Amino acid sequence: MIAAISWVPKGVLKSVPTAAEPPSKEEIEEILKSGVLETREESENEENDENMDVDASKQDDELAHALSAANALGKSSKRSGATPDSLTDALKELDMDNYDEEDDGVEIFGSGLANLYYASNDMDPYLKDKDDDDSEEEEDITIKPDDAVIVCARNEDDVWILEDPTSSDSNMYVHHDIIIPAFPLCTAWLDCPLKGGEKGNFIAVGSMEPTIEIWDLDIMDEVQPSATLGGIVEKKKKGKKKSIKYKDGSHTDSVLGLAWNKEYRNILASASADKLVKIWDVATETCNITMENHTDKARLNQNIIVQAVAWNHFAPQVLLSGSFDHSVVMKDGRIPSHSGFRWPVAGDVESLAWDPHTEHSFVVSLENGMVTGFDIRAASSDSSSQPKPSFTLHAHDKAVSTIVYNATVPNLIATGSMDKMVKLWDLSNQPSCIASKNPKAGAVFSISFSEDCPFTLAIGGAKGKLQMWDLLSDDEVARRYGKYANRAKPPTS
């Protein structure tokens, strides 16, 4: 499955990513000390334990099948006239005991060892095309200026290349993988210069573990992240009890949502199943602020996880968070002790997004298939007040797992759902659905507009294959928003 998608802006990636240096002895020791490998092994063992009964019965079936096949093979041999003696004779003829030994004077593939030696590499015909092979390999990993790059969170993070989105015959392929220790749940691209210079090119990954890892996208085959936020320092097991020690400021459960602050480029917000929202300084790898925004006393017995976070595009110190406590909370990061502003909603929050065209509007998608819009100008710090939504849509038949605004076209949003559908909505005047599509991705978990090519929508879901939707292929979208399109048309899916 594809749990999350992040576009990388054009022109940011190195045209030829650097190959990672092998880890030093000190780095290997640090990896071993970190317990990452032990954590991975434990999770694999837990999965194996859960499936042991199923596997055992499966193995019994396979054994019975193998025995019956062997029995059938014996019967067929007898029918064909084969006897143990004839099989023995055949094996003797092959002389398998001396298979690896060669007789002196026997020449294989040539007239002798002289053909295997050349005075120089230039004379060796098998090495003449070596430079061509190297150039072809470099060409395969070269990222062209017109290529679009997408990071997909799957069993490992994949860096996908969409060749020239303005071309009708665009090709899409996996450029390289980033191997991570736990299943990824969310991603956020950021350009904070963690390694010096003016800008960097990194992907932050939240997973089933409490650690947030930040990987350098300009390095291939790297074995360690460039930075880690939080995580486990030590695990101890005494009998059936486990004792876990976390880094200072760390989440203590899965990280479900990430949001990078484009104005304060070293700042990253995270949402977690531990009910907390945290604000991190990625440059120093420290947690600056921890907020308990969602502690509804009426729902204490329920799993009140925080699912999503988002920074306001116009007031970058303002952060939204949405939770399974049926609420959205807005806070100013400069005054985290303030209770903030709260909007009740009619279900568990799956996703939320600020309008990039105005500072006072945001939308929320819910597990009951509803989408709700709010105007913060109607907010009140009075906890007893119930601010009314700007609109409410019954958008899908199942949970609306993802919702995004188009950064170029005002009032255009897209929704993706567990009902396997992706829909486009026009929020101007009376909100209405203008297009819908089953992208054959299975249950949809993540969608994202390309800012470089705004009529290309990337879609990820349960089937694990990245899909693309060319919005301009829909007549209604082209009629309404064609004036925003570039002269060149994005690719079809």
UniProtKB/TrEMBL annotation:
Where is the stretch described as Disordered?
A: 34-61
- What are the alphabetically sorted keywords of the record? Phosphoprotein, Repeat, WD repeat
This entry carries the following GO cellular component terms, namely:
nucleus
* Pfam families linked: WD40
Classification via SUPFAM superfamilies: WD40 repeat-like (SSF50978)
Q: Where is the composition biased (Acidic residues)?
A: 43-53
* Gene Ontology biological process terms in this record: rRNA processing
User: WD repeats span which residues?
Assistant: 248-290, 393-429
Query: Domain of life of the organism in this record?
Result: Eukaryota
The name this protein carries in UniProt is Periodic tryptophan protein 1
Q: Which taxonomic lineage is given here?
A: Eukaryota, Viridiplantae, Streptophyta, Embryophyta, Tracheophyta
